[in-house]
Amino acid sequence: MFVSLKQAIRGLTANPIRTALTTLGIVIGIATVIIVLSAGQGFNSFINSQLESLGTNTVTVETRIPPTTRNRGGGFDRPGSQSVAITTLKNRDVQDVMRLPNVSNVYGAVIGQKVASYQNVSKNTMIFGADASRFDIDKGIVEKGRPYTDSEDKAAAQVAVLGYQVAQDLFGQDNPVGKTVRIGQYNFVVIGVYEKRGGLNGGDDQIFVPLNTAQKKLLGIDYLFYMLAEMKNKDLSDATAEDMRQVIRTNHSITDSAKDDFDVKTQAGNLSTFNTILSGVTFLLIAVAAISLLVGGVGIMNIMYVVVTERISEIGLKKALGARSGDILAEFLIESILLTVFGGIMGVVFGAGISFGIAKIAQSFGFAWQFSVPISGILIGVGVAGIIGLVFGVFPARRAAKMDPMEALRYE
User: How many CB atoms lie within 10 A of CB 63?
Assistant: First the structure.
């Protein structure tokens, strides 16, 4: 076996350029697998950080258009066929949800877009209106100044807390606290600035104002876009979510759950949905990588046939000197396996390098993206490469092993 290994290594190093090009398909396929698995873990860490920023013990209620239902004539009503604003979620729902035994706090919220300006600087900004209790639930920190109060919310006070990026864009290095910004047609006093949070839902590009102020002065509405409740015991999240559904259905005079004009989502449910989607995307990408590995395996089999043809005389000489068919089979099989394992190792290194670059780019944008290369991915990559070498190398190796020594010696 050692002699066969030595001969196989000599065969691979005899033509290094061909060896490298032959493994290219394997390198790309394994690298793709590593990138997919590593990016999947990084994206998972990012999503978890986003969910944690909302609190792991929270339940969200969002408005939605009821799904399609069958009418009496046998046809279908399509409430979602036109752009319809759902206006049924109200402050009363927030107050009633707050009375549930496992709910410790809750706030309602609305979202809109307005132009915010300070002196000669203007910015089209997302406006986030919410009850003052949001600051008790939210995990962010008001780095400068203070949050607005419940009394300011009830009075529809024109005060604002700026997201980090909004403060940078409008004020630069100046301290915004105490200064006045124009939001839409109203002047607002800046009372606070959030710390930099990053991420998709961090709020760095948002301005936070009292709920009543946003509803009455900026958006001209009396309904909510969503509410978020904090639970005392997160282990009872499913039961609490069901209690919330019952309360809101009663308030909205809904007797058929299929006609709900709202959606209740727990963080566990959100995470489960995300993991399902991520698993599907990962499977799809790995399937694409498998095609690359298959093509690479066929390429290696073709090259090994070429190698066998080039060394027919050598095979004949070895057999004439006493080499057995098993020795010839082992030599070419080992050469094929070494070729693919080398490609697998290079694919792991290449994939890890690209994954590291992806993580650094994501981190530079403020995303909580962790770089990691799962051990399982490395073992799968190298193991699959070895199996490919074995499967696609056995046919050329058997051809070499079955050669008649006299015919091989006469081959030119």
Answer: 17
State what percent of residues in the chain have pLDDT above 90: 34
What's the pTM?
Answer: 0.63
Residue that the structure tokens 């729902």 belong to = 93
Instruction: Encode pLDDT of 274-313 as tens digits.
Output: 778 877 877 887 777 777 777 777 877 877 777 777 777 7
- Choose from 52-56, 136-140, 243-247 the range with maximum mean pLDDT: 243-247
Task: Report which secondary-structure segment, H or E, holds 21.
Answer: helix 16-22
Burial class (CB in 10 A: 0-12, 13-18, 19+), 350: middle
Per-chain mean pLDDT for the chain: 81
Task: Give 119: exposed, middle or buried? Use CB within 10 Å, 0-12, 13-18, 19+.
Answer: exposed
Angle at 304 between CA 303 and CA 305, to 5 degrees: 90
What is the Cβ-side half-sphere exposure of residue 130, based on CA atoms within 13 angstroms?
24
In Å, how far from its chain's centre is CA 372? 14
d(CA 391, CA 403): 20
Backbone angles phi, psi at 321, to 5 degrees: -90, 5
Give the whole-angstrom CA distance, residue 55 versus residue 60: 11
327: tokens are 């020795």
Pair of tokens at residue 133: 């209790």
Give one DSSP letter per residue of 214-254, joined into a string.
Answer: IIIIII--SS-SEEEEEES-GGGHHHHHHHHHHHHHHHTT-
The winner for highest mean pLDDT among 27-41, 197-211, 241-255, 303-317 is 241-255
User: In degrees rounded to 5, what are phi and psi of residue 210?
Assistant: -60, 150
